[in-house]
Amino acid sequence: xxxxxxxxxxxxxxxxxxxxxxxxxxxxxxxxxxxxxxxxxxxxxxxxxxxxxxxxxxxxxxxxxxxxxxxxxxxxxxxxxxxxxxxxxxxxxxxxxxxxxxxxxxxxxxxxxxxxxxxxxxxxxxxxxxxxxxxxxxxxxxxxxxxxxxxxxxxxxxxxxxxxxxxxxxxxxxxxxxxxxxxxxxxxxxxxxxxxxxxxxxxxxxxxxxxxxxxxxxxxxxxxxxxxxxxxxxxxxxxxxxxxxxxxxxxxxxxxxxxxxxxxxxxxxxxxxxxxxxxxxxxxxxxxxxxxxxxxxxxxxxxxxxxxxxxxxxxxxxxxxxxxxxxxxxxxxxxxxxxxxxxxxxxxxxxxxxxxxxxxxxxxxxxxxxxxxxxxxxxxxxxxxxxxxxxxxxxxxxxxxxxxxxxxxxxxxxxxxxxxxxxxxxxxxxxxxxxxxxxxxxxxxxxxxxxxxxxxx
Length: 457
Ligand code: NAP
Ligand code: MG
What we know:
Helix content: 25-40%
Number of helices: 14
Strand content: 15-25%
Bound molecules: NADP nicotinamide-adenine-dinucleotide phosphate, magnesium ion
Oligomer: single chain
Distance between the termini: 67 Å
Radius of gyration: 23 Å
CATH architecture of the largest domain: 3-Layer(aba) Sandwich
């Protein structure tokens, strides 16, 4: 490996998949300049034609789903089932926002002396910075609405996981999207990502990643009053009340946190259980955790693959000390690969890092609570506020607790969080702005107001 290229490692085998050239700062600047130059012609594409190009891009992704999914299995260790779903999500998000160019409707506002209209103008070049945990969907949530609104896009995948993003770039070109309208620039955050923040032609940065880096991006963007959307970390609560369907709550809890090996900002990594059913819940949770199928991510029956890298496995493992209160664990393969078994802990101090920090791996902490007020207080006892689940049979309580928990994405009797029809984003230090849903395109436009005098003054 040299400074000019990065060896992509298969996290399930530790074998090199491919070497990918790293984009330099100068090459990044040149790409941003090309993206700026491509703006006038892209925004001038008739709305119906821009919609058609996005639909063609969606169709190209659809035709390539198995290939994209296999690439993600090899690059990221995602289970093949998840990886197909992730590629399908890119297709769906492109189709969803393909409807936007023909519906970028302004307002005619009644004013004296003339006619007043508003336009939804594109911002310019949009820089999308993607983390390694969901390389395909997170890229699509940025580039699809940005392109739909008439912006050009430069996209930086995480250094560890560039392969599917590079393939999506090829598919866009095959679909007829001009080369400079959507460019994928694999490389380092400190080089390529930093140029997105610093280069004045980039008018918005869409960042998903750690809260620490997100804060630096926001500070950097402030120098140019650059628009920014941040999707950061989470320490999400799965709240199980005594009146819930306990069997269902326990059977699904492992998948609410161990999906993608816990490398999910929406992972429900704290399970809060009402004291009166705590023992019973733990009895039900143990076989559910032991039943999670961990292994070869390419096998159809696998439910959890490896962690992304040796370094990340070390970080996750560091949360477990010799005296950590481990209740029980699932299984994981031996040998090559960055494996870590699903692990359930029961910390008794609220200050335990297992309860306060985002582990971003397959470790979940279970904590008892006495009543509804305590459940909400515990759920909110974090700087984060991204997602969460509430399990109860009482619809009034479900709504009260949903309103009480400070998080952007909650689900009741379910762990569903990110659905492309609905807005996604965080409260508090989990982020700024919203992605997806019917309003996402607005975040990629500026409102321009034009007054036309009918009286010549
Ligand atoms: P990260 O270190 O923050 O990196 C995220 C992206 O930012 C990567 O592409 C990275 O490039 C780039 N980057 C790093 N330093 C940069 C800089 N100075 N300027 C511009 N870009 C820079 O996070 P990660 O380690 O990839 O992912 C794990 C974290 O992301 C977790 O904390 C997780 O919660 C969070 N996350 C949040 C969401 C959400 O939707 N809220 C989703 C996924 C992940 P390199 O590849 O070169 O490091
Ligand atoms: Mg990082």
